[in-house]
Structures are given as structure tokens and as C-alpha cells.
Amino acid sequence: MKLTIAFYVFSITLFILIVVFRYVWGKQNIKGRLTSVAEVENASHGVKTPVLQQFIKKTSIYFESSPWAMKQEELLVQAGIPLQGEEFMVVSLMVAVVSMLTLLLLTKAWLL
After folding, report:
1. pTM
2. Residue 59: which residues within 8 A CB-CB, separation 6 or more?
3. Separation between Cα atoms, residue 89 and residue 57, nearest integer Å
4. Which end of the chain has the lower number of beta carbons within 10 A, N or C?
5. pLDDT reported for residue 7
């Protein structure tokens, strides 16, 4: 029973992660990402960004110099995924925490 619940939690979390990636970052290629970064730096600061994207940007500052984030960014660029390494790290941690809390609430195993 617990294995079934864990499978459902994993599947739902994976689905949510895919939806978030498509919503927040869209279907940009690497050139589009580099162009948009240059445009944002040159544009005025009056443009509103989604709350989740702002949170990820602000939180990712803490992971910029991490060797793991740098290696992940290299792999993300090779894969054509429009994320920076530190952003990927924040999203991964968020998915882990949400999955853990969901599993905790579903199984009621408070010691977990």
C-alpha cells in the first residue's frame, strides 16, 4: 500500500514539475535564453514576472558558486534546457520538499 502511495506521489510530483517548467520557462532554445537575458538587463525594471519565477531567482543566488550547480548548468546547456544550474538546484530542492510533505501527509508517518 505504501509503495502504491509513493508511486502516485512521485507521478504527481513529476507531472507538476513538467507543468511548472513549461509554464515558467516555456519552449526557449539556448539562443533565445541568451537573447532574453540580454534584453532583461537592458530593459527597464517595470516588467512584472511570475511570483514563482521571482522566488526561484532570489533563492538561486545562494547556490551560484556551487560546483554541483556549475556542472548541472553545463549538462542543461548540452540538453537544451533553458535553466541555469542554480535554478535547477532550487527547483530540485522544492520538488524534494513538496514530495516529502505530500508523502508525510498521505502516510501520516510523522517520524519520517
Report:
1. 0.52
2. 90
3. 11
4. N
5. 83
